[in-house]
Amino acid sequence: MKTLFPAFRVSDLDVALGFYTALGYDVVGNIDVGGGTRLAMLALPEEPDVSLELVHRPADGRVDPGGFDHLAVQADDLDATRERLLARGLRPSDVELPGGLDGPRTAWLVDPDGYRIELVQWPLGHPVGMTRADFTDQPS
């Protein structure tokens, strides 16, 4: 088994696509499910597979995110990523160091529906993403 992708319900698909394409995602495909419901399948340019689905069901009304906390997106150079996003009109937060000087660097932004996105730059030499090894020294 493998986790495929999160699916966010969005209030306005065109506005959401504007945000996520400015963030760096490519639209891989669109699906008209019928009854006004549309899906957009997205991936970052470096990803071979779909990594995010946007679901637009206008009949359900405005989105009120609940239960979901955030989507984490890797950035190879967080400073350059923040500058690119600022130039595209997005508003990432200042850089944070949640793991101290030797840990990851992070910044946050919020999409048009209120979903939080965490941009993460791993320390030099750290594998891509969080691994099991990151937790081997912690008590279970």
From TrEMBL:
<dbReference type="InterPro" id="IPR004360">
    <property type="entry name" value="Glyas_Fos-R_dOase_dom"/>
</dbReference>
<keyword id="KW-0479">Metal-binding</keyword>
<protein>
    <submittedName>
        <fullName>VOC family protein</fullName>
    </submittedName>
</protein>
<dbReference type="InterPro" id="IPR051785">
    <property type="entry name" value="MMCE/EMCE_epimerase"/>
</dbReference>
<dbReference type="InterPro" id="IPR029068">
    <property type="entry name" value="Glyas_Bleomycin-R_OHBP_Dase"/>
</dbReference>
<dbReference type="Pfam" id="PF00903">
    <property type="entry name" value="Glyoxalase"/>
</dbReference>
<dbReference type="InterPro" id="IPR037523">
    <property type="entry name" value="VOC_core"/>
</dbReference>
<feature type="domain" description="VOC">
    <location>
        <begin position="2"/>
        <end position="122"/>
    </location>
</feature>
